[in-house]
Amino acid sequence: MTMKRWIGAVATALMVFAAMPAQAADKVVLMLNWYVYGEHAPFYYGKAKGIYAAEGIDLEIQEGRGSAATTQAVAAKTADFGYVDVPTMMRAAIKGAPVIATGVLLQTSPMSAMGFVDKNIRKPEDIKGKTVAITPADSMTQIWPLFLKKTGLKESDFTTVAGDGQTKLNAVINGQADLLLGYVMDQSMKIKDATGKDVYPIKFADYGINMVSSGLIANSDYVKANADLVRRFMSATTKAVEAAEKEPKAAAQSILDANPKGGKIDTLTQGFELTIPLYRTAETKSKRPFQVTDQNMTDTVNLMVEYGGLDAKAKENPKAFYTNDYLPKSGT
């Protein structure tokens, strides 16, 4: 009987141990720059494929209402990470917001002037005599004067109409404007969703405007206090981006699986496919995602000081805005 009781006690203990929950995953809130669109596919795909869970992370993805608002949320620690326009984050950081980029994903600018393909506007010279819709004070409008300078255009060469983001889209959709300033993977897909028609983007990057765009940011104090978690998050996100690059349609589908009203599979896929080439520059083409170069960031700071309203003191230390220290090493 004693042996039986001992065996029973051991069996009971084993059953209790087996029933105990595994160590709880770390809850992480990621706030996006805007309502979901194709560019965001890797985050949803990484969550759906268990890539974040494998790093001990319980990821919650929240839609945003603009990079400035998301940056404020991260600065206030109401979101752990933000996916934002890095130059927008720089403007907040130079004014004292405790934020830093832990990985720069879009290392080539997605900014462009775009119009319907059938308008046959394919190069800067074709903009002459046309009407361009802009949103005052947004990131693209701030860099627009540099594009004009680089391409020899003058504001008197075309007509400008202004409005908020939706008004700008409607102007092109309804024929009140020939082009709008937008991101190649964002506004172009919104126009296609609304009309079924393709647009052609004249990309700023093709005319010597070298600056970064979207990346991941975190509160500086949060990074210092949670170094291991930041490393795991960046490792998972790097793997998620690499996995999504290989399966664009499946990655886009993961958006709809999480948010059935998040768009249409064709344009989500196309929008994500237009994003992938922006991940790397000639200098980083052989590197894993997020491995931005010091030169790219310095060039971005210099452009933002001259054209984007960034305080000139930012040029004293461009490295204050970002770190690559939490990124996985090659092959890990």
Explain this structure.
By secondary structure, this protein is an alpha/beta fold. It has two domains: 26-109 and 212-320, 3-Layer(aba) Sandwich (D-Maltodextrin-Binding Protein, domain 2), CATH 3.40.190; 111-207, D-Maltodextrin-Binding Protein, domain 2, CATH 3.40.190.10. It contains 13 helices and ten strands. It has a five-stranded mixed β-sheet, with helices on both faces. The chain has a five-stranded mixed β-sheet with strand order 7-6-8-5-9, with helices on both faces. α6 (139-151) links the parallel β6 (131-134) and β7 (159-162). α2 packs across α11 (248-258), α4 packs across α5 (86-94) and α11 (248-258) packs across α12. It is globular, with a radius of gyration of 23 Å. The termini are far apart.
List the defining traits of the structure above.
five-stranded mixed β-sheet, SsuA/THI5, 42% helix, NMT1/THI5, 13 helices, ABC transporter substrate-binding protein, signal, D-Maltodextrin-Binding Protein, domain 2, alpha/beta, 332 residues
Beta fraction of the residues?
15-25%
**Order of helix and strand elements from N to C terminus:** HEHHEHEHEEEHEHEHEEHHHHH
CATH superfamily of the largest domain: Periplasmic binding protein-like II
Spans of 5+ residues with little confidence (pLDDT < 50)? none
Major sheet: 5 strands, mixed
The counted number of beta strands is 10
InterPro entries: NMT1/THI5, SsuA/THI5
Organism: Bradyrhizobium cytisi
Protein name: ABC transporter substrate-binding protein
Pfam families: NMT1
List the helices and strands and how they pair.
Elements: H1 2-19, E1 26-31, H2 41-48, H3 51-54, E2 57-62, H4 67-75, E3 81-85, H5 86-94, E4 99-104, E5 111-116, E6 131-134, H6 139-151, E7 159-162, H7 165-173, E8 179-183, H8 187-195, E9 199-203, E10 214-219, H9 220-225, H10 227-246, H11 248-258, H12 265-275, H13 294-307
Parallel strand pairs: 1-2, 1-3, 6-7, 6-8
Antiparallel strand pairs: 3-10, 4-10, 5-8, 5-9
Helix pairs in contact: 2-10, 2-11, 4-5, 8-12, 10-11, 11-12
